[in-house]
Design a protein that fits this description.
single chain, about 350 residues, mainly beta, nine-stranded antiparallel beta sheet, seven-stranded mixed beta sheet, 2 helices
Length: about 350
């Protein structure tokens, strides 16, 4: 009897950024395999065709009952992805597959994949950036007659938004030294009510702040550079419309608006006068700006903070001067020149 083993061939991996959509063309073969034509994932948390080593699959029969549930499939770029033990194709009938990464344990919350719903309830973003994982999902249908030899094509889609922060300055008057960044007051618990290329997320709650501290300070130049620790990767956060912090009316941020904070030291280039932070024994303090972006799933949002003409606001958590502008406008002078006056001294001087 011929054994009909179940295996997959991934047809494409959806990789989307703010500026472009990248689609990976695949040559199908036995087992799940990747033939990438786009870049590999360059961040520790971003899943791409080149670094997906395993994922989990639920297979549903035509009546909606599971053929197998949340089974791990393992492989690598250019090879077949198989399970252990291997599952054979049923003799007749279609199977519907729901594939996901990371594991149920890493996801947290309650994952449901059945004939009526595919959802993740109570998902909470991990507080430590280095522990956050890209959440990807794919679905497909197959049967023995069509897919025993060719495998099943999967197209994975990102379910979260990716966030990174850079900074720069072309100012010759000030020197900016940066030691880290925080992404603050971000609602980070929600239900994913439907997976897909455009996943349906419920309204997030439970604000968190995410910090990344550099191993050594960087001095800003006119070229934008990352101010996040490399081993932290990037932030993987819930897609949503942010509500910004309002420094002018809510200096202590009681309404919990979203903002970015740069852990920074500012000095004058000539003279080395410490402008910020000036607290005794404190070398750095957060310079903050509000953000109100609409984050969408599958997009990578790169915030580049330009300190060339300003430095934002004092951290709303500062007990002394919350939301105070760190630098005012450019120093200007108003100059008036008095005209020369001709006046007789009243003295005649005889020479000799």
């Amino acid at each position: 009897m011929k054994h009909r083993f179940l295996y997959f061939a991934v047809a494409a991996f959806a990789m989307v950024s703010c500026s472009q959509d990248e689609t990976i063309d695949i040559n199908t073969g036995k087992g799940i395999s990747f033939r990438p034509e786009a870049h590999a994932g360059t961040r520790a948390t971003e899943i791409s065709d080149n670094n997906l080593t395993d994922f989990w699959v639920t297979a549903l029969q035509e009546d909606g009952t599971p053929y197998f549930d949340k089974v791990k499939f393992t492989g690598s770029n250019g090879s077949s992805y198989t399970s252990n033990p291997a599952y054979n194709w049923p003799g007749t009938g279609d199977l519907t597959f729901h594939a996901f990464y990371p594991s149920v344990t890493d996801l947290g919350g309650t994952l449901t994949l059945d004939g009526t719903a595919q959802k993740l309830e109570g998902f909470t973003v991990k507080a430590n950036l280095a522990e956050q994982k890209d959440l990807v999902y794919a679905t497909a249908m197959g049967n023995a007659a069509d897919n025993e030899e060719s495998g099943v094509s999967l197209r994975f889609c990102h379910q979260l938004a990716q966030i990174s922060v850079k900074a720069k300055s072309s100012s010759k008057a000030y020197t900016y030294k940066v030691k880290g960044v925080k992404i603050a007051e971000i609602p980070s618990t929600a239900d994913l009510t439907a997976f897909g290329q455009a996943p349906a997320w419920g309204t997030p709650s439970t604000n968190q702040r995410f910090t990344s501290t550099l191993a050594s300070e960087v001095t800003l130049t006119e070229e934008a550079q990352s101010i996040m620790l490399t081993t932290d990767g990037t932030a993987m956060l819930i897609p949503q419309q942010l509500t910004a912090w309002k420094p002018a009316t809510d200096n202590t941020n009681d309404e919990k608006g979203a903002y970015l904070g740069v852990y920074i030291q500012i000095t004058t280039t000539d003279g080395g006068h410490r402008v910020y932070s000036k607290s005794e024994g404190v070398d750095y303090a957060y310079a903050c700006v509000p953000i109100d972006t609409k984050w969408e799933a599958g997009n990578h949002y790169v915030y580049t903070l330009d300190f060339s003409n300003g430095a934002g606001y004092v951290d709303p958590e500062d007990p002394d001067k919350p939301a105070e502008p760190i630098l005012g406008g450019a120093i200007k002078f108003t100059v008036s020149v008095e005209p020369w006056k001709t006046e007789d001294s009243g003295q005649d001087i005889t020479m000799g």
